[in-house]
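Reviewer 2 asked us to include a model.

Predict the structure of this chain.
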Amino acid sequence: MLTPLIIGNWKMNNGIREAADLVIKLRELLKGVDSVDVVIAPPFTAIYHLSHLTADSPMQLCGQDIFWEKSGAYTGEVSAEMLADAGCRYVILGHSERRQRFGESDATVNKKLLAALRASLKPIVCVGETLEEREAGAAISRVTAQVRASLAGLSGSLVKDVSIAYEPIWAIGTGRTASPQDAEEVHNAIRELIYEMFGTHSARGVRVIYGGSVNAGNIDSLMSQPNVDGALVGGASLKAEEFARIVRFKHAAR
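Predicted model (structure tokens):
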């Protein structure tokens, strides 16, 4: 059984003071947590400050995006190496909001994936279908196509550091959540594809996590599914008590 991965994606919320206050609360609430990998993704401006506050805590830092070049004339962009230097160990790639609002494609996600691994960051690659695609019965074909394209050119020796976040677009920030059974179906298809692409030995450490209106009320049922290895949490990660409850989800038979 893989170590569960719970990620709090703060999106464009919390300045340095607010971010510090939230982390200080979480340090207390998460004391003793050692069976879950806990990751928080604050805005870029707060990362370095939080690297000191998260030391000696269960929390690790994550960037919300990167550019694929190491350096250069790319105004407004941040490289993987810069995030690693600031204290990050993970990075989110291809979030549905990036794909929909900023033109992210599978090809750009693939470039960013390879750049992240080059800088020893652990990528969380987001994939997911629209409501129209789900209603047309195309959810699995859409998601597996995204996974295949996003991981193109990746060697089997590096795939172990990659996690896949299934986040149905229709569930992001809407309060709607895929049923545990629907999530399990897509997660199982993703896992089978990863095994097909890289072999069971290389891919067995890849975690497939769920994102989409995850909260304290649905985390237990989601985590009871055998192929759900964690969660990518949005709005609920901005509330210390709720995020701590998500991290401390109740283990059911899996």
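The chain is about 40% helix and 15% strand. The first strand starts at residue 5 and ends at 9. We have added this to the supplementary material.
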